Amino acid sequence: MGSQSVSENSHLLSRIAAGDGHGENSSYFDGWKAYDSNPFHPVSNPGGVIQMGLAENLLCLDLIKEWIKEHPEASICTEEGLNYFEAVANFQDYHGLPSFRQALARFMGKARGGRVSFNPDRIVMSGGGTGAQETLAFCLADPGDAFLVPTPYYPAFDRDFCWRTGVRLLPINCYSCDNFKLTKAALESAYETARKDNIRVKGVLMTNPSNPLGTTMDRGTLKTLLTFVNQKRIHLICDEIFSGSVFNQIDFLSVCELLDEEPSYDKSLIHIAYSLSKDLGLPGFRVGVIYSYNDTVVKCARRMSSFGLVSSQTQHLLSHMLNDDDFTSKYLAENKRRLHKRHEEYTSGLEKFGIKCLPSTAGLFVWMDLRQFLKENTENGELELWRVIISDVKLNVSPSSSFRCTEPGWFRVCFANMDDATMHVALKRIGDFADKVKDETTQLQQKKRFNKKLRLSFCRINDGGITQHLMSPHLQSPQSPLVKASY
Ligand SMILES: Cc1ncc(COP(=O)(O)O)c(C=O)c1O
């Protein structure tokens, strides 16, 4: 393949092709590359990098595989299911299989504790949550318009929401002193800053439960947000992709519940993005959902869904699986139980080494606080620490700066994409690292104390009027009687 210079490409190709709006140059993706070039394997590469930068859920795939084994008729590639082959292989209606939309609607309700119901006619399919975000951006904003997004936020939003649409994301800065909760003041301030810069704000984009924090949004904050978008007449996109991955179900309040409770909010401003990549652990199936309360958005998104349809074979299989009420109830309960267990093991393991995480009740990751290990409280200091963690500790974790967080020293660590044994190796590596840094710090402090005492004793001697002698380099030798005297 020939190679073109950047300037030549900018003439030959589109701005998208010649630019780097994909965001692949961030540390978030660099960590993945480090893992790809030296992946950990317990037998063939025990010294390799452990992938803790991937929010993938492998904890319950055994349940899915069991179900598939017990239901050969659900697949068109088995003797039992082959009768459906023609009908499924020829299906290409962008409305999707009605049975699939019904099954999805039921599953989405269940994943939210059965407290809300979804209308299958409002379900639009997309190529994963990624496609859902982009389609929503296309429907709700024009190039140059902006959505506000609380920080820290999922790094790939810059790609999914902005890259091809030309829509911008503007941060709403949240801080650890508020447990990274979104405040009304921060929301208003981000909106006003955008207005002063003549940027048209079309809405707010948020994840609930949060990626990367693993926290859920409380009722008060959600109400503030709904009131805000209603007053400004802008949109609210709630990415609820982790709604079925909440260990403590009481903690999760979907925006749909609030809309049901308070009819005064204008529903047509509210849109939900969902996918089966996390709650069902099937990112490879590329099943995404746009659920909008706005009829025009549903219509337009459905037309756009031709660009990212879910294959009819996948729809067929999953409509059987998700229509099996017994299975989905057991799966969701077991998924929560396993995630909770893993979360507890991981966070309590870290605590033994004096490492804390932001308290959380959801998701496939924790927000780990490594501020105590920063040499410098800056983004550079964070990236320096991150490089050590990747290259020496051999863990791919994601630094807070890649989530547009303004506070250095926090790292997102995924814990559900590995088996128990690998998790213990990862914990041991972090523990050894923490011990090593603490030893080094103690030694450094001892040295500093020693030097301080030394200076003090020099001062005392200096008081005695032997300044000229102290200027001599010989006196700094460890053999000097003056130095010995200062122990
Ligand atoms: C908040 C959020 N939205 C969307 C996505 C993309 O999901 P999908 O794999 O279904 O495209 C992810 C994946 O990590 C995510 O965390």
UniProtKB/TrEMBL annotation:
It comes from the Eukaryota. One of its GO terms (molecular function) is transaminase activity. Pfam families: Aminotran_1_2. The keyword S-adenosyl-L-methionine applies. It catalyses: S-adenosyl-L-methionine = 1-aminocyclopropane-1-carboxylate + S-methyl-5'-thioadenosine + H(+). It is an enzyme of class 4 (lyase). Keywords: Ethylene biosynthesis, Lyase, Pyridoxal phosphate, S-adenosyl-L-methionine. Residues 50-430 form the Aminotransferase class I/classII large domain. Its cofactor is pyridoxal 5'-phosphate. Its EC number is 4.4.1.14. One of its GO terms (biological process) is ethylene biosynthetic process. The keyword RNA-binding does not apply. Pathway: Alkene biosynthesis; ethylene biosynthesis via S-adenosyl-L-methionine; ethylene from S-adenosyl-L-methionine: step 1/2. Belongs to the class-I pyridoxal-phosphate-dependent aminotransferase family. This is 1-aminocyclopropane-1-carboxylate synthase.
